Structure formats: structure tokens, C-alpha cells
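Hi U.,

Before I forget, here's the chain from the pilot set. I'm dumping it here mostly so it's searchable later in email.
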Amino acid sequence: MGTAFNGKRTRQKRHDRRRVSITWLLLAVVTVAALAVGACALFLPDRPPELLSPARQVTSAPVNTQEYTGSQQVTVIPTVSASRQLLGNATGTATADWSGAGLTSGRAAYQVNGRAVVALNTAIPLYRDIRPGDVGQDALAVNNELNRLGYSSSPDSTTFTWYTQLGWQQLMIDQGNDSDGTLLLADTLWIPSPSVTVANWSGTVGAMVSAGAPVGEIPGTITRLDIKNGQPSAQDRTLTMYGQSITLPANATGVDDAAFCAQVTATPEFQQMLQGSVNGTIDLSAGLDASLTLVTPITALRVPAAAVIDAGDGVNGCIVAEDGQTIPVAIVGAELGASLVQPTDGTDAASIGTVKIGPAIAGASCS
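Structure:
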């Protein structure tokens, strides 16, 4: 029994010695690690990580060239003249109405007491019956309009001639009226242009109409078109809307050309908009869709918007090349934070590869 007890004590001592050895080993490892960290802290350079160092200032940027057409969709605000009334010359009951698609010179607008009333775009409104041999500016106006419509007449004559009588008689027959060639005022309705859209029409079938009373209203016509929030361009541009185009001169953001305004006014698209405006369903002040393109595409230099200096007018400014040369430019467009410019001093845009920006152009000017 004593021998067994002694053996047990021997094994216990060996186990205790191993536990002490492991403890000292762990302490040694921790000590060495601490000394290594301290040495690194002592001998490594005392500088902040690169990620925490101050940002490097950017003073230049690369640029490139591109062909620029200036194509863009724009909104155009029309200025429209006041509407005008159409005064009828016939009294009675309206027995037919053909005004729904608008009025056209030389065609019946409506019928009163079974007789067609023909729309007529003469140079001056008619105010009397005209018979063969009558002379006046109204006769001249009838002669010229009959000629334009393809009927017999005496163009540029102030006399209602036999030829005029034949032409008028044929026009009346074509529109369903019998006639001896005398122009009866009650058979006519003066309109201010070859074709018009009408609103507030009162010559509907069954309605009573009176000579000298309004029978309808002509919405106003376009007198000017302005690009909404338009930016001027140093180049001529083409403005297109409803299939009609005109050249917009450099630096212009609107057009008042009478012929172009009349062409746009006459388009079915605008007439529909105009009708909606009269009816209160469309607000023309919201603008109309149009497009702009440069008349002649140009080679433009694409630079950061911040690279252009002294550009207060949005049209002209300067850039500073890498060699320090200040180059005057015209601003022709803008895209996604970049300005599209064209040198105005003859400098080849393709020869510029880098421009200065930021601190490098602080205080710089075109002068």
C-alpha cells in the first residue's frame, strides 16, 4: 500500500512541473510580443498613413475635341395676337354648316335660307354688291382672288369686268348657287387669310343669323416665338417646329419673322393647339415642342466647365492652356458638367490637350 501511494505522489509532482513549464512558456511569448511591438513603435518613422495625408490639388485636366451639332429639344413660347370676329352678311336661318374643318377661300362656309355663303379672302373686306362695270378697290380685290382661285377675271384691274362676271358666276355655280354673275354681298363671308380655323361658331344648322352680327371667331396668329430659358449661341442655328424651319441668327433666342410665324400658325398641329386654347383645354403659355441644331456642325473643345473663366454672359470666355496661354473661346454648348467651346482667335482646337483648372487659374481673366 505504501508503494502505491508513493507512485501516485510521483506522478502528481511530474504533472505540476509540466503545468509550471507551460505557464512560463506563455509568459515568455507574451513578453517577446510586447517587446517587438515596442521596438516597432520606437524605430518606425513617425508619419500618418497615406490615406490620411492631405489631398493633392488638381491644377490641370485633359481635354478632347468632338463634332458638335448643337442638337437639342427645346420649348418655344408663342406670342399670339388677339382673336378677331367674323361678321356675317346674310340674314335668315342656317340650313347647312361646313365650318367644322375650318374655312377656305372659295368654298361654302355655311348656308342661309338654302343659299351657300362662300368664304372669300380678298385684300379688303367686301361691303357692297358688285355688278359688271363697277369700279373700286373691292373690285380689284375680287379680280385678284378669283385669279388666285383659278377662275376667269381681270387681274390687277379695279373694274368688275365681263371676265370677272363669268368667273364669279362659275364660282357660285360650283358652290351650289344660281347666279347671273352679279356679286351679292350676302353670298360672301370675308376671311383674313386663305384658310382659317374658327371658334365660337354660331352658324350651326337651325340657328338664326343676322347680317352685321358675328358668326364666328378666328383665334389669333403667332407673331413671335421665343425659346423658353433660351441660351444664346455664337453660331447660327436652325429652329424647327411642326415641320417648319428657320435660321436663328447667332446670339438670338427668338424669332418674329412674319412668314415663318404664318407657316407655323397654318400647320394642323398648331391649329389644333389653338383650338384647344380657345376652348380652354390647352394653355399655350406652357410652350410648344421644337428642336434646335447648328446650321453648320463645328469641331468643339470639350473642357471642364470650371476651366472657362470670365464667362459671365454665357457666350464668351477664356481658357488657360497648360503652357499658360490664355485663349479666348466662344461657348457653343454644355454637356454633363463640361463646356463645349471653340477658340475665337484662330487657335486650332485639336492642338490643345490640357487646360488649367482650380488654383492654377485663381484670379485669371481674359484681359
